[in-house]
C-alpha cells in the first residue's frame, strides 16, 4: 500500500486529491496538512511513501518545507503541486530535492500515475508543459552533449532521448515507440550512462541542446 500525505492550504483541493487517490486500491492518504510547518511534522511522524506538497502556502511555503524535509533521513518522495507552471518554482523545487512537479489541473489519472511512479523511485516526474519550459530556460545547466557522446547512442536510444526531451513519461514513450516500459527504462538508463547525465531532467536538457526536440 502506498502511503500519501497531502499538503495544501485549500481544503477543497486536499479533499479532491484525497478522493482521487483513495479511489485506488493501492493508495492510502494517511494525513493532510494546511501549511508547510504541518507538512514537515506529518512527514516526520508518518514517514509516508509520497508527499503531495503545494508550492504556495501561507507561512512556510512548499519550497522551504521541501528543504527542511531534505535534511531528515526519511524515505518520502515529494511531488510539488501548483496551479502555476512558473519556471522558477520548478527550478527551486528540483534543486531542493523534489521528485517531481505537477500541475493541479492535470487529469486525476495522471496524478495517480505520478504518485505510483514516485513511490517506485522514478526520478524527476514533470508535467510535459513544465518540462519544456524548464528545459528552455535552464538549458545551460549540464554540459552540452558532445557529438562523440551522441554518436555512442543507438538509433533507438536517440529516439528515446528525443521523446524524453518532449516531456514524455516512460509509458508515453513505450506507446509512441511500440515497446515495453521496461525496455524504455533500460534505454533511458543507458542514455544517462553514455552521456554522463545525472537524471531525466538533465537528459531532457541534453536533448534540447542537441537540437533533438
UniProtKB/TrEMBL annotation:
Boundaries of every Response regulatory domain copy: 3-119
Entry superkingdom: Bacteria
Residue numbers bearing the 4-aspartylphosphate modification: 54
Keyword tags: DNA-binding, Phosphoprotein, Transcription, Transcription regulation
HTH luxR-type domain mapped to chain residues: 146-211
Full protein name: Response regulator transcription factor
Organism of provenance: Dactylosporangium salmoneum
Lineage of the organism: Bacteria, Bacillati, Actinomycetota, Actinomycetes, Micromonosporales
Amino acid at each position: 500500500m502506498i502511503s500519501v500525505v497531502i499538503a495544501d492550504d485549500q481544503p477543497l483541493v486536499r479533499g479532491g486529491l484525497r478522493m482521487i487517490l483513495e479511489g485506488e486500491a493501492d493508495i492510502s492518504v494517511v494525513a493532510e496538512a494546511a501549511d508547510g510547518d504541518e507538512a514537515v511534522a506529518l512527514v516526520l511522524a508518518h514517514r509516508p511513501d509520497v508527499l503531495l506538497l503545494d508550492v504556495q502556502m501561507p507561512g512556510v511555503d512548499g519550497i522551504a518545507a521541501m528543504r527542511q524535509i531534505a535534511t531528515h533521513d526519511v524515505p518520502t518522495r515529494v511531488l510539488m503541486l501548483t496551479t502555476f507552471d512558473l519556471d522558477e518554482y520548478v527550478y527551486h523545487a528540483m534543486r531542493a530535492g523534489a521528485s517531481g512537479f505537477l500541475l493541479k489541473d492535470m487529469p486525476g489519472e495522471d496524478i495517480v500515475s505520478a504518485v505510483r511512479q514516485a513511490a517506485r523511485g522514478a526520478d524527476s516526474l514533470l508535467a510535459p508543459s513544465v518540462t519544456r519550459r524548464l528545459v528552455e530556460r535552464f538549458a545551460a545547466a549540464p554540459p552540452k552533449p558532445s557529438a562523440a557522446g551522441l554518436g555512442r547512442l543507438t538509433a533507438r536510444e536517440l529516439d528515446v532521448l528525443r521523446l524524453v526531451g518532449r516531456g514524455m513519461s516512460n509509458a508515453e514513450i513505450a506507446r509512441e515507440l511500440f515497446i515495453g516500459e521496461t525496455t524504455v527504462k533500460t534505454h533511458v538508463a543507458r542514455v544517462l550512462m553514455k552521456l554522463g547525465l545525472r537524471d531525466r531532467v538533465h537528459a531532457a536538457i541534453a536533448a534540447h541542446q542537441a537540437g533533438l526536440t
